[in-house]
Prior knowledge:
With 256 residues, the protein is of the alpha/beta class. Helix content is 43%, strand content 17%. It contains 10 helices and 10 strands. The strands form 2 sheets. The chain has a 6-stranded mixed beta sheet, with helices on both faces. A 4-stranded mixed beta sheet has the order 4-6-8-9.
Amino acid sequence: xxxxxxxxxxxxxxxxxxxxxxxxxxxxxxxxxxxxxxxxxxxxxxxxxxxxxxxxxxxxxxxxxxxxxxxxxxxxxxxxxxxxxxxxxxxxxxxxxxxxxxxxxxxxxxxxxxxxxxxxxxxxxxxxxxxxxxxxxxxxxxxxxxxxxxxxxxxxxxxxxxxxxxxxxxxxxxxxxxxxxxxxxxxxxxxxxxxxxxxxxxxxxxxxxxxxxxxxxxxxxxxxxxxxxxxxxxxxxxxxxxxxxxxxxxxxxxxx
Length: 256
């Protein structure tokens, strides 16, 4: 299978399984990711997702140049010809962690950018080399990258097709943490478990506030935040969280 989809307690793990092709996104992989993401989105027992690649060389090498790019060119006038994804067209309220175990290039970096938290291996290299193919990123790179890092650094990556190592990615705020390659998944799972200890509806509301608020003025964002505070304060999880705090015990959240 092009995508391995596993469930470990509250955590879903999506593994792009094409190591022989640098885990490039062919059409089968894109469709497989969509189906797995939809299951994750709709499963009330799953609270956090981790996206990674098989093997030790690549997280994802981008769009498959022999399969996906020809399809995109043939359907270039129809922007919705591609299956929806977290990069474009599929909204995901639940938090996602990118476990970047190796190269994250082009669509691979765009996939990581569509996640909320990014853990990178020491051997990882990241970039958007599309301009070297006479192309530009088409899955959100030109939009998310300048929102994630300083404009001039985004321009350096986008306009020069330049690759950077994991330490540089950490220095400019593109990834949260750099760890030895063997510790990438363990670290991602550790962070996922920390998120799972929090109120799941509160976590999703916080993500919604961040995502929607990023396109708003400060005043509009504060109004959105206020609405979401009112929502979470009316949930059973809020009652449980405050009660557990007073009773000095761990809360038993139910996402209700």
